[in-house]
Write a structure and sequence with these properties.
This protein is α/β, with parallel strands linked by helices. The protein is built from 8 helices and 10 strands. Strands 5-4-3-10-9 form a 5-stranded parallel beta sheet. The longest helix is centred in the C-terminal third of the chain and has 21 residues. The N and C termini lie far apart (42 Å).
Length: 261
């Protein structure tokens, strides 16, 4: 079955996107990313060195752009102005790279998205030629507005960033998927493999995570589990689950031809 994951016109095999922060060291980062099978990796420009600090080790030495699609993000930005400035820097450091992840946070405690500032930043970035994948709330109206602006992927939270609470409102995710045509990727809140599988079974195009892997007791093993969960969830969605039938049990084996009947 030809089931490619397409973002901004480019095709990928893996529907799992992973972050590169919160690991103990670069060795663990590399091992976890490799175990995840991810082809798109996010990099927090404000927290990771990709060349802006020439005297420090660069993340690009272990995760080269020749092997991965880099997704610079604006983690830590609380205004449209800061987010736009950060991604302009990323484009300069990465030789004109245009695919980016936009996130504008509302407060440092909940890390909930500020959708007003997010919309403002998205308008500016799209006008400047960026291909914007955007972190947002699970509001279907906002999601549609961001698609209309020109964002190439909508990335609603499942629950708060780093919470590991899983998918708290699957109905809103379904509303978003019903209304937008660009890929919908669950971003934030995934805690374990079953959360990722549920997101994919709902029909999401992909899942992005960082803390769920980096914060696990064994990050590399969890990365492998997440890879399998995303693949299994996608296959289950494509297969189409059996209908739920309350109080309508049916045997797994056919009853016709039973001896004595």
């Amino acid at each position: 079955m030809n089931d490619k994951f397409i973002i901004a016109g480019k095709s990928y095999n893996s529907r799992l996107l992973v972050g590169t922060g919160k690991y103990r060291d670069f060795h663990e980062t590399k091992a976890a990313v490799e175990a995840s099978g991810a082809e798109i990796i996010t990099i927090a420009i404000r927290r990771s060195n990709i060349g802006q600090n020439p005297d420090e080790p660069s993340l690009l030495e272990i995760l080269p752009p020749s092997k991965y699609t880099l997704l610079p993000n604006t983690a830590g930005c609380y205004s449209a102005e800061d987010a736009v400035r950060t991604l302009r820097l990323a484009r300069e450091l990465l030789d004109g790279h245009s695919l980016v992840k936009l996130e504008v946070l509302g407060d440092p405690q909940s890390l909930y998205p500020n959708v007003i500032e997010t919309i403002a930043a998205a308008k500016t970035l799209v006008a400047e030629g960026f291909q914007v994948m955007v972190y947002t709330s699970d509001d279907p109206i906002i999601a549609k507005q961001l698609e209309d602006i020109g964002c190439v992927a909508i990335m609603p939270l499942a629950s708060l960033i780093g919470s590991g609470m899983g998918i708290l409102n699957p109905w809103n995710l379904q509303l978003i998927m019903d209304r937008v045509k660009v890929p919908v990727i669950v971003d934030a809140g995934v805690g374990t493999a079953s959360d990722a599988a549920v997101a994919m079974e709902l029909g999401c195009a992909g899942v992005l995570m960082n803390t769920a892997i980096a914060g696990a007791q064994h990050p590399v093993l969890m990365a492998s589990a997440m890879k399998k969960a995303v693949e299994a969830g996608r296959e289950a969605f494509l297969a189409g689950r059996m209908p739920k039938k309350l109080y309508s049990a049916s045997p797994s084996s056919p009853t016709a031809g039973i001896i004595g009947s």
